[in-house]
Amino acid sequence: MKPIKMFVWFCFLLTSALIGFSQSMVLSKQTVKNTSILIAPDASQACQKAANELQNYIKKTINIDIPIVTSRNSGSQIIIGQDKFINQYASGINTAKLNADGYTILSKGNDLIIAGGSGRGALFGVYTLLENYFGCRMYSTDVVKLPQLKTLTLKSINLTEVPRLILRDVFYLGAMDSVYADWHKLVHARSTYSLFGLFAHSGFQVMPPSQYFKSHPEYYSLINGTRQPSQLDPTNKDVFTIMQGWLNAKMKNQPQYDYWSVSIEDNGTYCQCDNCQKVIAATNSPGGPAIVFANKMAQAFPKETISALAYSFTRNPPSNIKLAPNLNIMYCPYFKEYVAGYNSPDYADMRKQVDGWFNLTNNIFVWDYVIDFKALQSIYPNLYNLKPNLQYFIRKGATGYFAEGNIFPDGEFAELRAYLLSKLTWNPDANDDAIISDFLQGYYGAAAPALKKYIQLTSQQLTGGPDKLTDDMITTYTGLFNQAMQSVQNQPALLKRVKKEKISLDYSAIQFYLKDAEKDGNQFFSNPQKSAKFNGYMQEFLSSVKDNNIKRLIHSQNNIPMSQFYMQWKNKMTDLQSKSMLKKN
After folding, report:
1. Rounded to an integer, what distance in angstroms lies between the CA atom of residue 237 and that of residue 147?
2. What is the β-pairing status of strands 137-140 and 167-171?
3. 3-state secondary structure 257-302
4. Which residues contact 234 (CB under 8 A, 6 or more apart)?
5. Are 442 and 415 a contacting pair, CB within 8 Å?
6. With b meaning 16 or more CB within 10 Å and e meaning fewer, what string describes 171-198?
7. Contact between residue 219 and residue 232 where contact means Cβ atoms under 8 Å apart
8. 276 φ/ψ angles, rounded to the nearest 5 degrees
């Protein structure tokens, strides 16, 4: 568990509206002697943690020590629990309808009840109480903002929330932290509270080529007449038997997992053997054999859920197949290097695929891509697309969402993206603009207005197709960043955060001027201002990535030094200038 590095404290006024209740809970030094947190003597681990977290944050915000007790008393109590324990105090709460992660927060006289579902619902309820009624925020793993209060009155709360998504996985470095994940109610595919016992590209996890290929090449795909260790052969009976045995043993030893992925490897090759070709012809899809294999595995384990990736050559739904109800499909839309909404014409083919899968099953998760993986540092203004894109899949019936972002400590507005996606996966109807504004103010301070304007402009001007960036836009965006940096120039921590976000503009400007020089060298090099801008953005980019210890520029290239990219760009511009001079002569 990663410790919280820094707390940034702030004060503000909390007010509560009186809505029909004549009694309320007051937390203050005057009431502390008559207030306690009540949990069951045999409370679950989640309920114990919920009580401890609430006790901890009450201490930090109001500076009072509220005891945790296991028996009823005559004072005001915050009652945290599940099932029968909660029914003693609020019989009207149906905890069964809260599923695993849902909760009810209910005022009852001088008491406050936090009822949780069978999993971490009570814990999630506590974090909602802290955010919505105390005013606490966890913007990142090391920026937590808490109010300093003398007293807090909790009146007339009646809130029930049950998430629509079973899987709420935000694949960003900060979001993988267990403290952050709990606060934001995330459920990762792979973590302490993960759903999957075996995840994603799983065939070689069970049958690695290093162990099997030499003695049994027939277990692997036939490519152009030769057996190659690129995929398993899904029509080989021994492959099925070995994987079935492996899964059977794991399921018995690890019953806490609900999903087991039986999926292709991360490449575009598929087996071309005679048996696979027959299945491909019958299902009208090169992914047919892999889906048939996973479907058969699901039938072999009717009490478990087998998951298969609809990705690469398995992305198109197969024909002439009835999927087992316990076969989960993890659909992966193909990402584009430019921003477009999933309801736009740009994604017409994707929507046909999605409709095809939902005609076969309602047991579908989505593995979404939320950045440009070919240029992690580029401007990719999709912050206002995240909500409608997620809502598109939920309207179709998706019950799980995995947002693949950037697991490395870099990328455009990485902390904001993680925060926004965390909020939206819990509540897809949340006000995304309000979430963005709240984050910008809390994380960047006085730089927030200029950064908000930058986000709004790029979202309006650079979406819906590639190559829309212009010289005038770059000038405008640079002015906004200069304004943002000026506003926090005497606050080193905030200034560093703003400078980090400018890396995306620097990178995009470099690429723009390189393309501009390629398009018309004579025009470009006859304008010394453009060359000066190119060199200026290059120098700022290199300096900023060094200051922020950024190692990766392209998703698949993590060992190339940033200085090497710098030299490539510099040499390319020098070469273009030389060619332009030759043409003139």
Report:
1. 62
2. unpaired
3. CCEEECCCCCCCCCCCCHHHHHHHHHHCCCCHHHHHHHHHHHHHCC
4. 240, 271, 276, 289, 290, 292, 293
5. no
6. bbbbbbbebbbbbbbbbbbebebbbbbb
7. yes
8. -65, -40
Burial class of residue 559 in the structure, from the number of CB atoms within 10 Å of its CB (0-12 exposed, 13-18 middle, 19+ buried): exposed
Backbone CA torsion sign across 41, 46, 49, 53: negative
Q: What is the CA radius of gyration of the chain?
A: 27
How far apart are the C-alpha atoms of 558 and 36, rounded to whole Å?
52
Closest CA to 203 of 219, 226, 188, 223: 219
Count how many Cα atoms sit within 13 Å of the Cα of residue 460 in the half-sphere of its side chain. 8
Q: What is the percent of the chain where pLDDT is above 90?
A: 84
Does the pTM surpass 0.85? The reply is yes
Q: Please list, in sequence order, all residues whose beta carbon lies within 8 angstroms of the beta carbon of residue 540, skipping any fewer than 6 positions away.
A: 502, 506
Q: Render 516-546 in DSSP notation, one character per residue.
A: HHHH-HHHHHT-HHHHHHHHHHHHHHHHHHH
What does 209-259 look like in DSSP terms, one character per residue?
A: HHHHTTT-GGGEEEETTEEEEEEE-TT-HHHHHHHHHHHHHHHHH-TT--E
Token pair, residue 226, equals 């030769």
pLDDT digits (tens, 9 = 90+) for 462-499: 998 888 999 999 999 999 999 999 999 999 999 999 99
Phi and psi, residue 503, nearest 5°: -55, -40
Structure-token pair, residue 206: 């069970």
Residues in contact with 195: Cβ distance below 8 Å, sequence separation at least 6, in sequence order: 166, 167, 187, 189, 257, 258, 259, 400
Backbone dihedral angles phi then psi of residue 237, each to the nearest 5 degrees: -65, -35
Residues pairing with 431 in the sheet:
none
Residue 571 vs residues 230, 339, 420, 422, 514: alpha-carbon distances, Å: 37, 30, 39, 42, 11
CA 165 – CA 174 distance, rounded (Å): 21
In this structure, what is the dihedral angle of CA atoms 461, 464, 466, 470, given to the nearest 10 degrees?
-10
For 19, counting Cβ atoms within 10 Å of its Cβ (0-12 exposed, 13-18 middle, 19+ buried), the class is exposed
Q: What is the pLDDT of residues 108-146, one digit of tens each?
A: 989 999 999 999 999 999 999 999 999 999 999 999 999
C-alpha closest to that of 199 among 244, 291, 263? 263
Share of residues in the chain with pLDDT > 70 (%): 95
Q: Which two tokens stand for residue 477?
A: 């965006």
- What is the C-alpha to C-alpha distance for residues 87 and 263, in angstroms, rounded to an integer? 43
Amino acid at 328: N
Integer Cα distance of 165 and 182 in angstroms? 15
| Alpha carbons 500 and 494: distance in angstroms, whole number | 10
Is residue 105 within 8 Å of residue 129, measured between CB atoms?
yes
- 67-75 long-range contacts, Cβ below 8 Å, gap at least 24? 67/36, 67/37, 68/36, 68/37, 68/38, 68/39, 69/36, 69/37, 69/38, 69/39, 70/38, 70/39, 70/40, 70/41, 70/43, 71/38, 72/38, 73/36, 75/33, 75/34, 75/35, 75/36, 75/110
**Residue (of 105, 106, 102) closest to 117 by Cα position:** 102
